[in-house]
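User: Can you predict the 3D structure for this chain?
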Amino acid sequence: MRVIQSSDGKETTSSFTVDEFTDKHDIEGGLTYLGLCNILKHAGFDWWSVKDSFGVMDAFFYGHGGTTIFVRSQHMHVYPAFYSKVTNKSLLLCKVKIVFVGKTSLVLHTVLRLEQTGELVATSSVVLVCVDTTTRRPVALPTGFIQKYSDLQNVPRPYKVSGFPRFPCSPEKLYRYSVSVAENDIDRNNHTIQSHYLKFCMDAAVQRGAREQAYSIPNKGVAVVKEITMEYMGESILNDTLVVVSWEDDINPNVIYNVIQKEGRDIFRCVITFDIAVIRSKM
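Assistant: Here is the predicted structure, written as structure tokens:
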């Protein structure tokens, strides 16, 4: 992977082939949603490695100084080229730009394209919050970092998770199942890898819910996702038992809502928007 820094100091451009992320591919060799999350995560790391000079990167990776960076929320839009054009050998171009800086948080926007044609593969906006490693409460970003991007403090926040709907009144509309956090779900900080919460939701919404005819969508093999919105509210560790609660939108069957609970408390929320018309055309 090669990384180029923009002249304005706010953007990085990475170029790489998909097979650098083969550990996240399915058996057919196509890029999965976890693979896409992995690419977007590494692109963010590349941004930090080029731009960071105030100790934020150390906090992000290692929790130095009693602080760390926590992904608060993320919105992904997946384009048709993700399904029809991306292969193991595809050369991708990824641009990551910082678009907002607050007192305790910042927003990175990522655009992923096929390098040869320029076709959009995916876009992502992620809200990162600086937190105290002991209290897990938000704390101020380093002063030097805030000053460096002072021009981004007064711009409107470009992305914010909208209100999440309450559980439907009818219990029969809810689909529940339990999952135990396994060793391959754990990161270097001994917490559940954040993208694996999406995996649990996809399992509920597609593999299990569709198989048991809880939803309008069919099996995972032909699932086409257009948008994913994720909100991280807590953490889990090895052997924790999590309960995934999901339900289909009353009006739009393309939309599945998901909540992951630990001991009755919400730790993750996710909205997945499918394209049922495309799914059914493939059946």
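The chain is about 20% helix and 35% strand. The CA atoms of residues 83 and 224 lie 8 Å apart.
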